[in-house]
């Protein structure tokens, strides 16, 4: 068998998305609904915005420029850092008493929150955004957040005024430094003048020089004190904060949509990854990777109360699916070779429905006129007796080559293999007989079908039947299918759609090829009727005659 193709197959993730779309959408909607409920119960928070203008040091008027003392332009990020500093927020905290809407407890809690914001360097109550050009011109938007819209507006205006006051004090830094320098120089001149003695009559030359310098320094100090009143900052509040009307958070509808979209994207991504990594057999395209043909699909059966499984398989779309599968198996099963017409039916796991498929195939073949023997080779969990359970009395028939005496009949598989001359089978309907199994509950060892006795028995019984269907146990659980497969004309694998991985099927195929088994193809069981293919492709198996499997018209389910 050629190696499996490791190329990326986009059809697999797309099928997985289509198959689980309802579940993904349901989980996304549920996540959005939970988010909406959680956020809709939160206390609303309002944001009040005030606009602050930043202007450069030049006004365009020379007289104004010569009269005013302007602060230098603020560098990028300076305003944001100043707002979160202890200077500005400390001034705001000291003026919280100017907000009458705050109670004493609320004022204390707000002050503590602002203190925590200062300590952590993260602003959660006051924020500012904006930028300036290289000349210091631009705008800033200062925002304040609170559960009370009036408090938010007052807090934004207080913060804006505190920020402007800080900016004005920044412009006084150099003026205050020059003032302190002049006062120091005057003190030094006064000291030196005292050392020359009292000024009587005409001052000396040194005294005259010191007096002239003192007068000049006094004149400079008076001018500087006058300019101190004209110092301005680069920030101006041009739009005080109005009282906000709508809260900025929470927004339950927006958050619900975002969370739902995120969950939808996350689950879809995980589903695509899972479908790409866990390559499950779900359709004809998956079997092509294994060089296997799809012989038929049987939809999942939902039995009504008291309805028999066999009766359901004979009705409606299940009967059509079983008939198609029986025709496909018959067309590819080798005829006329040395091996008897034995069809061995097995699966990967228990619960895949291989016993139901075995019974349905045997029933459909007998209905078409073939003489069929159904052998139940699953010694651990025999189920054919339950499937064919009827109220009619049991009728026994001799198997080919058997001449039993009364009281010596062998009516189960192990006894029939041990004594073929006394073997009898149960008559189920015209042309259909059943050789069932009886589990040995008292044996300490696990029962196995003896391969050599099986080979001899089916060679003898094959002369009296057109088809022998052998219901074997799951191949990954028991070794019987691998042991018996060389003595069968063909092996049919029954897989539950979406349950078996490509890797596990590949391992089973490798084991069957090692014993020179003829794998006819796959019957997909428990297929979702909505996912059933509209038409079936031709076979592409290796050990088959070049006979095309018929393509029936698809049926809407």
TrEMBL record:
InterPro entries in the cross-refs: Bact_polysacc_biosynth/exp, CobQ/CobB/MinD/ParA_Nub-bd_dom, LPS_length_determ_N, P-loop_NTPase
Domain of life the protein comes from: Bacteria
Membrane topology: Multi-pass membrane protein
Keyword Kinase annotated: yes
Main location: membrane
Gene3D superfamilies in UniProt: P-loop containing nucleotide triphosphate hydrolases
Protein keywords: Cell membrane, Kinase, Membrane, Transferase, Transmembrane, Transmembrane helix, Tyrosine-protein kinase
Domain CobQ/CobB/MinD/ParA nucleotide binding per the UniProt entry, residue ranges: 344-532
Localization of this protein: Cell membrane
UniProt entry tagged with the keyword Cell membrane: yes
GO molecular function: non-membrane spanning protein tyrosine kinase activity
Ranges that cross the membrane: 20-39, 256-277
EC number: 2.7.10.2
Domain Polysaccharide chain length determinant N-terminal: 6-65
One matching Pfam family: Wzz
Protein name: Non-specific protein-tyrosine kinase
């Amino acid at each position: 068998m050629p190696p499996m193709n490791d190329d990326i197959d986009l059809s697999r993730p797309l099928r997985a998305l289509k198959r689980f779309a309802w579940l993904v959408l349901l989980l996304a909607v549920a996540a959005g609904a939970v988010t909406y409920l959680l956020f809709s119960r939160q206390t609303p928070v309002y944001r009040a915005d005030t606009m602050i203008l930043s202007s450069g040091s030049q006004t365009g008027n020379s007289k104004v420029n010569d009269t005013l003392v302007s602060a230098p332009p603020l560098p990028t990020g300076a305003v944001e850092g100043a707002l979160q500093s202890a200077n500005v927020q400390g001034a705001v905290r000291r003026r919280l008493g100017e907000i009458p809407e705050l109670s004493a407890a609320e004022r204390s809690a707000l002050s503590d929150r602002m203190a925590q914001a200062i300590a952590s360097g993260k602003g959660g109550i006051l924020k500012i955004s904006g930028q300036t050009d290289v000349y210091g011109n631009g705008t800033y938007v200062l925002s304040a957040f609170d559960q009370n819209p009036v408090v938010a507006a007052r807090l934004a205006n207080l913060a804006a005024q505190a920020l402007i006051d800080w900016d004005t004090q920044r412009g006084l830094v150099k003026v205050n430094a020059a003032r302190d320098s002049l006062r120091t120089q005057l003190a030094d001149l006064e000291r030196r003048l005292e050392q020359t003695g009292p000024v009587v009559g005409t001052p000396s030359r040194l005294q005259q020089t010191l007096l002239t310098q003192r007068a000049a320094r006094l004149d400079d100090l008076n001018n500087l004190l006058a300019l101190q009143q004209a110092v301005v900052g680069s920030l101006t509040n041009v739009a005080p904060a109005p009282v906000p009307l709508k809260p900025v958070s929470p927004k339950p509808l927006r958050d619900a949509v975002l969370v739902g979209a995120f969950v939808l994207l996350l689950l879809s991504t995980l589903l695509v990854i899972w479908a790409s990594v866990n390559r499950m057999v779900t359709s004809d395209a998956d079997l092509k990777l294994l060089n296997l043909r799809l012989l038929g699909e049987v939809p999942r059966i939902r039995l009504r109360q008291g309805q028999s499984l066999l009766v359901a398989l004979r009705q409606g779309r299940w009967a059509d699916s079983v008939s198609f599968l029986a025709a496909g198996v018959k067309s590819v099963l080798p005829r006329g070779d040395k091996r008897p017409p034995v069809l061995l039916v097995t699966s990967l796991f228990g619960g895949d429905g291989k016993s139901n498929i075995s019974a349905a195939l045997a029933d459909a073949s007998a209905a078409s006129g073939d003489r069929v023997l159904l052998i139940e080779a699953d010694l651990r969990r025999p189920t054919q007796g339950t499937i064919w359970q009827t109220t009619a009395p049991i009728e026994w028939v001799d198997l080919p080559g058997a001449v039993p005496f009364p009281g010596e009949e062998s009516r189960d598989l192990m006894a029939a293999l041990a004594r073929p001359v006394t073997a009898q089978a149960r008559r189920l309907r015209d042309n259909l007989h059943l050789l069932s199994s009886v589990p040995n509950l008292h044996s300490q060892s696990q029962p196995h079908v003896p391969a050599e006795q099986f080979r001899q028995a089916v060679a003898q019984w094959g002369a009296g039947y057109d088809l022998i269907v052998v219901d074997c146990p799951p191949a990954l659980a028991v070794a019987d299918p691998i042991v018996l497969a060389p003595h069968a004309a063909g092996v049919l694998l029954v897989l539950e759609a979406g349950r078996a991985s490509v890797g596990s099927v590949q391992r089973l195929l490798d084991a069957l090829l090692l014993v020179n088994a003829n794998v006819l193809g796959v019957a997909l069981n428990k297929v979702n009727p909505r996912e059933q293919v509209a038409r079936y492709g031709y076979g592409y198996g290796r050990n088959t005659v070049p006979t095309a499997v018929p393509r029936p018209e698809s049926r809407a389910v």
